[in-house]
Automatic annotation (TrEMBL), chain A:
Keywords from the UniProt entry: Membrane, Transmembrane, Transmembrane helix, Transport
Annotated localization: Cell membrane; Membrane
Entry keyword Transmembrane helix: yes
Start and end residues of each ABC transmembrane type-1 domain: 180-376
Bilayer-spanning residue ranges: 47-69, 184-208, 220-242, 248-268, 299-319, 355-375
Pfam family, one: BPD_transp_1
Superkingdom: Bacteria
Primary residence: membrane
Membrane-topology descriptor: Multi-pass membrane protein
Name under which the protein is recorded: Peptide ABC transporter permease
Family: Belongs to the binding-protein-dependent transport system permease family.
Length: 387, 665
């Protein structure tokens, strides 16, 4: 198998090699497993491949946010409140081009009439950007104590704001990275619970049929009827406010899952209904296999691809849900940093007029959702490789 | 890294996304659209006002002439708004009381009063249904008043005057002869008798007699005694000296004339003493109450001052400058009261402005949007300091954004010294601990970050920022740092300060974040949680909050608000219940309580001296942190609006003087 994979990697080099490869593929197709076929097909979907890479990078970023962020999310730069994003430069008028990137210092000016504060680049002072600098100490994943950041300036308190700062002078780039951890993990954890509920209830409903089926299906009908946003809002508002931030985070995941499992359960039930009548199911049953074994070994793998697609498309919904609830002030709250919480700080006229960079978290939300949608699209195309 | 152009473009896209999100949120919450602008209507009103006959000052063009100081008895000629002509009303002289009130809302040092011109509609905006704080304050009429709400001088208002006996126990109040309700009925001591005997002393209507009307101003004292002298004079007496009553009637708690005067001729129709219950039954049923619930019917019909912006108040007789006449889903209209009792020194009946239009919008951001597009003539309650640059940049749209003083402290920091946690008590009741925390507060940063420089460090608590000294104090207390770098309490465990705040004001959450970071610098474990403000209130009452933030009325000496319920919940409970509930405060706290109690019943001059002692004690003991003060509050006024005091007074005092405003040409 590995040879096939290697060869397909080097595509488009010469005509002779390409025709040889086609012959190989022809042979390989006939013996390849379903997953292999899916992978080949998926790889042809360039947009989905790119999305997968970007998403992987984003999740890695979220996982290592402490190391990647130049500072800490609560670290205040008191001289630089509401400072705009800085431009990373390589060229300086006096010293010319340098390979080491740097940023200029910023000076605050206050308009005497409107009291508006603006920042101007101060070209007389520049801060070179170094890699693997020692900065604020932190604990990676709460375990490894270190103070090495991927990049930063060597002077403590020097400004390095790739995306500007907020009203307390906290670096927005750092906060977005930390927010990514909360917002992105929310999507994954939320979907795991949804998956468990959907598979379990859909599976039981389809396999057992009868009264159980009716009860579960009517429950699903009821849940689908309810408009989701007001329902989320009502449930989120019902979360005890005395809970800690972590409890609220978990509570919200549960809220999204208990509403979100219905679609998946429907698909699973439909599939199981049709598959349980198939000959191979009958054969397994006659051979004395238990119900659980039949579901696990014979039925589930038959529609695993659908589940994957469904899941991928559901993740951005959960992420958006968290963001919108936090944005409305019903979800997570400061000092927890999530993209929704960051956006909540930006929902006012002064931000739109004077500090538009505080809207950066919205860009990352859009990017994430878009990438998940492209990925889901590619997976859907690949999910049925025999077509 | 992306190029600048690209960055800009994506920012704009994102801006649109957010605008869309805002719109969706608005739609979701069931907004019913904003009403059409009323510009045309207002300018028409302004034009009509130009015809005012006899009123002085209009020939001066934009600027009226300053009003000379006069004795009200020398004024014999009175003028009214042209909008009242042809309305089949008695002449203005007969509508005014024999001795009208010569308006004195602001002290002469703060306002160079101009004789105004009649006409115009004042547009306000609110984000709360049936409530407009700006209109409420503007419209409220207390029994007595204190110019500029400073509490320095107390004069008559709805009441013509007062007399206090030597021993400060008996108060004789004189009413204005000829004063009339907005429906033309006379106001007499019968209204007072009805209010006090049939409402306040009626156990069904008033189960708990107001605490401030007891001797000593506390619920534990004996209730006041009421005596009717003649048609225009009545007496109130107490068992103990109570000079503080006067300020209590003038400004404390924004009490209106309704405390003692309610329209008896109107309300008797709903009171079982005057109307048999059988006759009331149809009304009770119509109002949706159960059979026999006349108390609910009465309370529904009896409109108190805070309900005067509610549509229920339409048709209710009032003494206020304006009265609500129409209320739709999005606007409430207030028209002038033709029987209003105040005049200016030229004999013009106030108010100058004929009507108020209060527009209801979805939220604070919509208020801001209307404000900066110049669609609001007066805005105080909804104006936020953080939006000042935005206001100022859009002043070309026809308004001015002033910076006046705020009547409350921005936000104070509280540690509950009576929380049931024994370790917590031991630590927080040690004054060294509070001193250390106080020294770790960097006032300059707080003022700069949260209040944009428009505040000053506390004047009666030490404002020095000294981390070294603060750390030393904590070391002296034996709060050494544990292996995790956090200081430990006397029980050997990590000592935590858990902030729990509600977001009642926009500065509370960011200030808590900031203060938490500052106290962490001392090696203390500080956590914070934002909770729903209703839950916050419940937890506070149940003595469950350990550390929190809220504002107090310390800038107004007569409010006797020193946050007692927040830093010593159980002690305050003991004090207010007369020792029945809570815990007995220690000697140093009792001293403070004694001073505050003395100030509450003392006459204004003595009270102010006592308050200075309170401040000094608060500075030494640091029961709570009044870390900064003198914060500014933006005040949005139409650029044509006159008789607006300068920026040195309280914003809310300017708001209070609304009947004096007028639109210049």
């Amino acid at each position: 198998m590995s040879t096939v994979l290697e060869k397909t990697d080097k595509r488009g080099i010469g005509i002779s090699r390409r025709s040889r490869r086609r012959r190989d593929e022809q042979g390989a197709y006939e013996v390849a497993s379903q997953w292999q076929l899916m992978w080949w097909k998926f790889r042809k979907h360039k947009l989905a491949m790119a999305s997968a890479v970007i998403l992987l990078l984003m999740y890695l970023t979220a996982a290592f946010c402490e190391f990647l962020a130049p500072t800490l999310p609560a670290q205040r730069f008191t001289e630089y409140k509401n400072a705009p994003p800085q431009t990373v430069r390589f060229y300086d008028k006096e010293s010319g081009f340098s390979f080491r990137p740097f940023v200029y210092d910023m000076k605050m000016e206050v308009d005497t009439k409107t009291f508006r504060r603006t920042f101007q680049a101060d070209t007389s002072k520049k801060y070179p950007i170094h890699f693997f600098v020692r900065g604020e100490p932190y604990k990676l994943w709460g375990i490894f104590k270190t103070d090495i950041h991927l990049f930063g300036t060597k002077e403590a308190g020097a400004p390095l704001f790739l995306m500007g700062t907020d009203d307390l002078g906290r670096d927005l780039f750092t906060r977005i990275l930390y927010g990514a951890r909360v917002s992105l993990s929310f999507g994954i954890l939320g979907i795991i619970l949804t998956l468990v509920l959907g598979l379990l209830l859909g599976g039981i409903s389809g396999y057992l049929g009868g009264v159980t089926d009716t009860v579960i299906q009517r429950a699903i009908d009821l849940l689908i009827c309810l408009p989701t946003i007001p329902l989320w809002m009502a449930l989120a508002a019902a979360l005890p406010r005395s809970w800690s931030a972590l409890d609220i985070y978990m509570g919200m995941i549960v809220i999204f899952s208990i509403i979100g499992w219905t679609g998946l359960a429907r698909v699973v039930r439909g599939k199981i209904l049709s598959l349980r009548e198939e000959d191979f199911t009958m054969a397994a049953r006659l051979a004395g296999a238990s119900d659980i074994r039949i579901i696990r070994k014979h039925l589930l793998p038959s529609f695993a691809s659908y589940i994957i697609v469904n899941t991928t498309l559901a993740i951005p919904g959960t992420i958006l849900g968290e963001t919108s609830l936090s944005f409305l002030g019903l979800g997570l709250q400061a000092p927890v940093v999530s993209w929704g919480v960051l956006l909540k700080d930006a929902q006012n006229l002064e931000t739109l007029a004077h500090h538009p960079w505080l809207l950066w978290p919205a860009f990352f939300i859009v990017l994430t959702v878009l990438m998940f949608n492209f990925l889901g699209d590619g997976l859907r195309d690949a999910a049925d490789p025999y077509k | 890294m992306k190029g600048d152009a690209c960055e800009k473009r994506s920012t704009i896209t994102i801006a649109w996304v957010l605008v869309l999100a805002l719109a969706v949120t608005t739609a979701l919450a069931g907004c019913s659209g904003s009403p059409a602008p009323q510009d045309a209507e207002r300018s028409a009103d302004n034009g009509a006002a130009g015809e005012t006959e006899g009123s002085k000052g209009e020939d001066g063009g934009d600027k009226g002439e300053p009003a000379p100081v006069v004795d009200v008895s020398t004024i014999t000629e009175f003028q009214q708004s042209p909008s009242l002509e042809g309305k089949d009303l008695p002449p203005v002289k007969d509508r005014l009381p024999e001795v009208p009130k010569l308006t004195n809302e602001m002290p002469a040092s703060m306002l160079n009063y101009e004789i105004g011109r009649y006409g115009g509609t004042l547009r306000t905006v609110t984000s709360v249904i049936d409530w407009d704080a700006d209109v409420f304050v503007m419209n409220n009429e207390p029994l007595l008043n204190t110019p500029g709400i400073l509490g320095e001088e107390i004069t008559g208002n709805v009441l013509e005057g007062y007399e206090m006996s030597e021993d400060e126990k008996v108060f004789t109040f004189k009413m204005r002869k000829g004063l009339k309700w907005s429906d033309g009925e006379p106001v007499t001591t019968e209204d007072v008798r009805f209010t006090i005997e049939d409402i306040l002393f009626n156990k069904e209507l008033t189960p708990i007699f107001p605490a401030y009307l007891h001797s000593g101003g506390k619920a534990t004292g004996t209730p006041m005694k009421f005596e009717l002298v003649d048609e225009y004079t009545f007496k109130i007496s107490f068992g103990e000296p109570y000079g503080g009553l006067l300020i209590g009637l003038a400004i404390q708690g924004w009490r209106g004339y309704q405390q003692f005067i309610r329209p008896a001729h109107y309300l008797k129709k709903f009171h079982v003493k005057y109307t048999p219950l059988e006759q009331l039954e149809p009304e009770i049923r119509k109002a949706g109450f159960k059979k026999g619930e006349w108390v609910n019917l009465f309370n529904d019909k009896d409109i108190i001052n805070t309900e005067l912006t509610n549509k229920k108040a339409i048709g209710f007789p009032v003494l206020t400058p304006w009265m609500i006449v129409k209320s739709t889903q999005t606007t409430a209209t207030f028209e002038r009261n033709p029987y209003y009792f105040k005049i200016d020194s030229a004999g013009n009946q106030l108010p100058y402005i004929d009507s108020i239009q209060s527009t209801l919008v979805q939220d604070i951001e919509m208020v801001t949007l209307k404000t900066i597009s110049g669609e609001v003539d007066f805005s105080r309650e909804s104006a936020a300091l953080v939006k000042m640059p935005l206001y100022r940049e859009n002043e070309k749209n026809g308004y001015k954004a002033l910076l006046a003083n705020m009547h409350v402290t921005p936000t104070d920091i509280f540690l509950n010294l009576t929380h049931k946690d024994e370790t917590w008590r031991k630590v927080t009741q040690d004054v060294r601990f509070r001193q250390a925390l106080n020294m770790a507060l960097n006032r300059d940063e707080i003022i700069d970050a949260i209040y944009y420089g428009f505040a000053v460090p506390s004047k009666f608590q030490d404002s020095a920022f000294d981390l070294e000294a603060a750390n030393k104090l904590l070391d002296d207390m034996g709060m050494t740092k544990g292996s995790d770098g956090f200081r430990v309490g006397p029980d050997g465990k990590k000592f935590t300060i858990p902030f729990e705040v509600g977001a009642q004001a926009p500065d509370i959450v960011p200030l808590t974040e900031l203060v938490s970071e500052m106290w962490k610098q001392l090696g203390l474990d500080v956590t914070m949680k934002v909770i729903d403000s209703t839950l916050w209130g419940k937890r506070r009452e149940a003595n469950e909050l350990k550390a929190t933030m809220i504002w107090t009325h310390t800038p107004l000496w007569y409010m006797s608000d020193w946050g007692q319920g927040y830093w010593g919940t159980l002690w305050e409970m003991y004090h207010s219940s007369g020792g029945k509930k809570g815990e007995k405060p220690p000697a140093n706290v009792q001293e403070l309580y004694d001073l505050i109690d003395q100030a509450a019943i003392a006459n204004p001059t003595d009270a102010q001296a006592i308050i200075e002692q309170v401040k000094q004690k608060m500075g030494e003991e640091l029961f709570y942190f009044v870390h900064i003060g003198d914060v500014k509050q933006p005040l949005i006024v139409n650029e044509k609006l006159r008789n607006i005091p300068g920026e040195e007074g309280f914003a809310i005092a300017t708001n209070f003087s609304g009947e004096q405003f007028f639109f210049a040409d």
